């Protein structure tokens, strides 16, 4: 009986520690709002650049979808942030400029650089949203992340198809 009680205590302690570890890694609501809105704004900016620079219909079509979808998502996130008394990203403009520079100065075609950028950006954004779903203590942000994640995953799939086409 003593062994069973000791085992139960150890299991309980391990469970408490693992739960504490999960909460320790949870992003704050303010951090998620700032990062998610910055990534959305960067998507909009790089896609506007693609609308100007690309000659390819499929790139322009994808870019227009990015502008529409990320504008909608940022508006929803902005409304949630306002309700939670949080601010959306203020440093997004600097991030946008950096992404634009990367796109303008990479070797190869613009379309190739844009597609590669979209794959990487969506992989990072998906991770951010998955982490929010797993660790968030804010129901409004969890719901937003769950609602938005499938669209981000679709974007990644389409970006990978463009990357495969233009990565030649």
User: What about the largest sheet?
Assistant: none
N- to C-terminal separation? 68 Å
Name the CATH superfamily assignment. Answer: Ferritin, core subunit, four-helix bundle
Give the number of DSSP strands: 0
CATH topology: Ferritin
Q: Could you please describe the fold and organization of this structure?
A:
With 168 residues, the chain is mainly α. The chain has a single domain, classed as Up-down Bundle (Ferritin). The chain is built from six helices and no strands. The longest helix has 28 residues. It is elongated, with a radius of gyration of 20 Å. The N terminus is likely disordered.
Compose a concise summary of this entry.
With 168 residues, this protein is mostly helical. Helix content is 86%, strand content 0%.
Throw out a few tags for this protein.
mainly alpha; 0% strand; single chain; disordered N terminus; 168 residues; Ferritin; 6 helices
Write the layout of secondary structure elements.
Elements: H1 2-25, H2 29-53, H3 57-83, H4 92-105, H5 110-135, H6 139-166
Helix pairs in contact: 2-3, 2-4, 2-5, 3-6, 4-5, 5-6
């Amino acid at each position: 009986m003593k062994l069973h009680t000791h085992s139960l205590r150890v299991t309980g302690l391990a469970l408490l520690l693992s739960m504490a570890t999960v909460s320790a890694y949870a992003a704050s609501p303010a951090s998620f709002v700032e990062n998610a809105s910055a990534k959305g704004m960067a998507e909009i900016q790089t896609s506007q650049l693609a609308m100007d620079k690309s000659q390819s219909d499929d790139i322009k079509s994808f870019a227009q979808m990015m502008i529409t979808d990320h504008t909608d998502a940022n508006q929803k996130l902005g409304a949630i942030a306002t309700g939670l008394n949080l601010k959306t990203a203020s440093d997004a403009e600097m991030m946008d400029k950096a992404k634009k520079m990367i796109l303008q100065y990479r070797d190869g075609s613009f379309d190739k650089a844009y597609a590669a950028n979209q794959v990487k950006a969506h992989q990072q954004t998906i991770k951010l949203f998955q982490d929010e779903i797993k660790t968030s203590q804010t129901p409004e942000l969890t719901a937003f992340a769950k609602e938005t994640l499938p669209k981000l995953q679709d974007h990644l799939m389409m970006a990978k198809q463009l990357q495969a086409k233009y990565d030649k």
